[in-house]
Amino acid sequence: MIQKQQDDGGNKKVTMKINNQEYNLVIEPHWTLRELIHDKLGLTGTKEMCDKGACGSCTVIMDGRPILSCMALAIECEGREIETVENLEVVGHPLVDAYANNHAMQCGYCTPGFVMTAKALLDKNPNPDEEDIKDALEGNICRCGTYPAHIGAVLEAGRKLEGGKK
Amino acid sequence: MDKQKLGIMEIEPLVRDRYIQDEFSIIGKRGIARMCGKEKAGGRAEYTRDVKLPGMLYCRIMPSPYAHARIKSMSTERAEALPGVRAVLRYDDPELADKPLFGLETKFNAGHLASDGQAFYHGKEELAVTQEQWKQGAGRVLDGVAWWEGHPVGVAVAADTPELAEEALSLIDIEWEELPLVLNPMEALKPGAPLAAAEINNRNNIIRKLKIEHGDVEKGFKEADKVIKFDARRRPYSVADAEPMSDVILWRGDNVEIWAHQQQAYDGKIIFGMKMGIPLNRIKLHVPYQGSQFGGGGNPMMHHTHGVHIISGILSKRTGRPVKTFYNRRDNFYNLSQDADCHTTFKVGFRNDGTITAVKIDNICAKMGQYGIDHFEENTRIPNLALNYLETNINVAPAYWFRCEQNHNALCLSIVFDHVAAELGMDPTLVALKNDGTEGRDMEYLSKFKKEHGFPDRDSLKEAIELGKKAIDWDKKWHLPGTKLLPNGKLHGIGFTWTHEWDDTRGVACAGVLMHCDGTVDILSQKSDDGLNAMTTHCQIVAEEMGLKLEDVNFRFFEEVGFQMMTPDGSCNLAVDAYVTRNAAREAKQKLLEYATTPIKLIDITYPPAFPDNYPDDLDVKDSVVYLKADPCINVPVAEIVKRATLNQGGTRAPLFTWNWHRQGRYGTEKGRHRLTRQAYFAEVEVDPGTGGVEIKKIVNINDVGKAISPETCEGQQYGGDYMGAGRAMAEEMIYDPKTGVKLNANFIDYKVFTMRDVDTTVNLLLETGMGYGPYGLNGIGEDIATVVPGVIGAAIYNAIGEWVDDHPMTPDKVLKAISKANVKRGGLK
User: In this predicted complex, what is the ipTM?
Assistant: First the structure.
């Protein structure tokens, strides 16, 4: 639990579920969800790149939807269920291996954002085709330009997921 | 003693593998997963931005609000009074007085900036300022004068939280004296222009001049059937890197630890040690994974490298706490490299058969540019070349390397060749083949050179062109400019360009190979990971050379243990580094086989080896098992061999260690060290004649990599380079307010980086001729594609509309103007 740093300033107690664990937090009103997850809770897979909602590197899944955590205020996340990239290895999600197998990263800094965006897609549609994947990932920036490799990685993960028919 | 036995390579620019292995079990194989892949995809890879130490303070540096201004007075009282602020470092602090950025005392090889002051490559360079001043062009660690908007100046504040550090900056009271500014290199050269940085040059805005001449261009123009003149401009684009800059420094008594986000982290360490008066053996360097920076974050002169280290170091020492100095996204756009603003004039003479007789280039660049002539020297037979290069200072962010220093050189080659082909109505692939060569000499000379020096004698360009033509269906699709209107109402264009390899095989690397008593191996060396998959490729090399399973080799390169590799600094990667892992692995294998055959005597007991009746030459290793060549059924696992060497005393005392050091060449382009492999590029576009919008339908890369250690990694550089190159060609440009010099697009919304939908298809083909100077005959391509692709897209747009858009990026407004011009010339498109 994070200690309240000041008595004033609008700090608020917030309860949320992150990676299936309940957190009771005292949150300063200006913290973004990314700052909370990365800076305060130490879940550093949620990356700061643009800090302006442009790149997708800080994507987490909130209540089933991929969201940009740099554009969400943590104080507004009362009762939310959030999944960060760290959870994928815990649950053995095939995306992690598929990304490594397909070389779908270079420097890797933006990769967790792509992976979480892809996870949200596969949660809804484990059998995406190439266009579905492009539709889902087209908002993420990879400065290394690994874009074509993501298609193969997500297709492979889709095939491995239970229910995948490809 | 025989030098070779010591494992020391000759310092000679022509060192290379004369023997190319035909068959490998691990090198060159597809289907090998990235060893860093799970860490990165699973969010477990640690970057400097993620490092958080107990008690760590956060430091912010003041960005200048003005493009050119001087601090008249500064009060830090209100900031110091803010609870949670632990230290304030002012620009007039006595400890900073002797700590300018970089400086002449740093006499070590920093890429092109060799300490002996010789010119880059060939030619004669004239510095308009002292070399020390030139090297300080990036500014000082903290100064009272700002040369560009966002320049880190005045004050640095360390506080308990990032928010407090930011708030403290807002409480600094500064009285500024605004100074006149100049933003365009052409304006900067006019008489009476404001001085961009009078502290460096108080006479004019010239930083460097260079003149290069080969042959006689005037004679070459006379010999030509036709002479053309034209202008081109390449506007500045930003590195726009992924991970915002930061460092962490922690003093522990007389020792210091650095966490660096830096490609040339060891250079940063050396400069930090010199500036702070700390011996290198008291500095421990940690280099976590690196969010991409493409050289723009690696320059050792820059503020974000050793400048930030010095600020963090002083503040850590004064507070007794670890200090993280961090840039925000805007700071990154301000202070990392952008590529130079270049204004270039060409005069080209050629014969009707496509033979180019003379090229003259007049090139004016802002900050640190590129000459424009280099590729004509290195991979053409054009006998008459002339360059006049002028480098100016202006009040915009620093310009240095950004994948790569050859950007303008490559673009100039593309533009000239494609203009010549267009003037003649010739297939541009034929013009390229007609002029391929080196240093004014033809392919016959090059063929002789290859044979004399033990290289395979293959025509790399011809092979690459054949592959590319087939892949893009060139013979069917190529047409005369502005002549193909598609059923969808768009103009179809197809283009070609070419250049040489990006081997730049020069520099220094060292590494150790250490085998533990369980038979597994660690490669020991520090290397900054920039996404080039060095972790896997070096493990492949060591596993291949030692006969181990790939999973038995690991390379965790994050800690500096006294061994460092080149880290795409100076464009060198595997082409230099792989020599040391390969050589150390070969020596380690020999030691292993000696262990397998040599008895161990301990006082009065002699322990027999695993193969008591054999010699090392009788044995070999495969899949981590040592076996008798004459009878492979007789075999012993590697783990068992080394376990015997430790006499089963338990623990992990490593029984086997070798190391290797390798220095090769100097700049990589020394005279007589001819570039041998070639790269060919094709692109297909559709241009909307109504809007000037360009759709990039296909890019085909054919890269002669000499030998691909990891084909998927090479392909990653190919398609990755396509997106960056296409972005540079079409959209990327730093925009400055013309009156104030304020950057208007220092964020990822307004600065357009290409994304998944911006290129339809890329086709990436690898050619392996074995003609690289690296081990196994390899050469690098990491910088090649992004650097050359703008040229091929320009050629494709010309082919579509029939008019050149030689002003990069080729945004729709410029394309539309060119279409109008073409329409006027031809009386309207059909």
Answer: 0.95
